[in-house]
Specification:
The protein is of the alpha+beta class. About 20% of the residues lie in helices and about 35% in strands. The chain has one domain: Beta Barrel (OB fold (Dihydrolipoamide Acetyltransferase, E2P)), CATH 2.40.50. It has a seven-stranded antiparallel sheet.
């Protein structure tokens, strides 16, 4: 598993490095989306998670949820056209789960991509994500995930 500046980036996921989002393809054709450990560390403790409702369509580059911490409010952007299939209600109730378990219980939404084959080709595989994340952290002036 790649670790960049103390931030774990599981190699079985696909990443939208620019937006600090990860994707996991599921056996049923859906895709789970979450924020990376980098995003969680940069934002600080989350205080609110407001997802789009299941059944809503989301265009590429648009937000599927709003995430709020004590020092930041921003969108969770989807890299491809999709429909929201499910939202993580447990995260709505306890947003800090995304800080403690960003790749497990802290997932944000499940999506049905309009064209997963094309979308997947635009994402960075976990096995190749260390270099792009090192460059992004340098550009963003982010020291890393270590407390």
């Amino acid at each position: 598993m790649p670790t960049v500046r103390g931030c774990m980036l599981p190699d079985d996921l696909l990443y939208d490095v620019e937006n600090n989002i990860w994707y996991r393809a599921n056996d049923d054709g859906s895709v789970t989306l979450g924020m990376t450990a980098v995003a969680a560390a940069m934002a600080g403790q989350l205080v609110a998670f407001t997802p789009r409702k299941a059944g809503r369509k989301v265009e590429a580059g648009k937000s599927c949820a709003t995430i709020e911490s004590g020092k930041w409010v921003g969108p969770a952007k989807v890299a491809f056209d999709a429909e929201v299939l499910a939202v993580n209600d447990a995260l709505v109730a306890s947003p800090r789960v995304a800080n403690s378990d960003p790749y497990g219980e802290g997932w944000l939404v499940k999506l049905r991509p309009a064209d997963w084959g094309t979308a997947k080709a635009t994402l960075t595989p976990g096995t190749a994500v260390a270099g792009p994340y090192e460059a992004k952290m340098t550009a963003d002036g982010f020291a890393g995930c270590a407390a």
